[in-house]
């Protein structure tokens, strides 16, 4: 039985392809890798919105903010000086920043408005059904 797995001489391979790793190249590589990891962590920070009939919850960079869904008066996209999405009720606000593009802000705004109006309509029909049954 012949085995194809033979030990590989790393120096021979690196010298054959002409690859030499000196200190400046190593530093550049580690710096680039550090930038990639830093940017990836920043992008992956959580920005999630949960809408239920009772509460609208926004998770921003591991922090949680909540507003009562029925109390939300406005949700608006502000383009300058820094792009952000502002969600307000009479007593508090949530400022959502740091999405990747204007398109992301606008998509989130549409989804937020759709979800809130859906739950408001559902509550309206429940109240209408309750009042017609009590007569």
Description of the structure:
It is elongated and about 80 Å long. The chain has a three-stranded antiparallel β-sheet, with helices on one face. A three-stranded antiparallel β-sheet has the order 4-5-6, with helices on one face. Strand 5 (84-88) and strand 6 (93-97) form a beta hairpin. With 135 residues, the chain is of the alpha+beta class. It has three helices and six strands, in the order ααββββββα. The model has no long low-confidence stretch (mean pLDDT 80).
How confident is the prediction overall: mean pLDDT?
A: 80
Note the beta-strand portion. 15-25%
Shape: elongated
Oligomerization category of the chains in this entry? single chain
State the major sheet: 3 strands, antiparallel
**Rg from Cα:** 27 Å
Low-confidence stretches: none
Query: What is the helix tally?
Result: 3
Layout of secondary structure:
Layout: H1 10-17, H2 23-44, E1 47-51, E2 55-60, E3 63-68, E4 74-78, E5 84-88, E6 93-97, H3 102-134
Antiparallel strand pairs: 1-2, 2-3, 4-5, 5-6
Comma- or semicolon-separated keywords:
3-stranded antiparallel sheet, alpha+beta, single chain, 135 residues
Give the structure's gist in a few sentences.
This protein has helices at 10-17, 23-44, 102-134; strands spanning 47-51, 55-60, 63-68, 74-78, 84-88, 93-97.
């Amino acid at each position: 039985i012949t085995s194809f797995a033979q030990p590989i001489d790393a120096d021979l391979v690196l010298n054959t392809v002409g690859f030499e790793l000196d200190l400046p190249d190593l530093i550049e590589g580690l710096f680039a890798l550090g930038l990639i990891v830093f940017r990836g962590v920043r992008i992956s920070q959580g920005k999630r919105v949960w809408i239920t009939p009772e509460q609208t919850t926004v998770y921003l960079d591991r922090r949680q903010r909540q507003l009562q869904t029925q109390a939300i008066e406005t949700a608006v996209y502000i383009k300058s000086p820094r792009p952000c999405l502002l969600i307000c009720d009479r007593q508090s606000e949530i400022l959502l920043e740091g999405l990747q593009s204007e398109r992301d802000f606008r998509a989130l705004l549409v989804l937020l408005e759709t979800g809130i109006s859906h739950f408001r309509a559902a509550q309206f029909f429940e109240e209408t059904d309750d009042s017609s049954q009590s007569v």
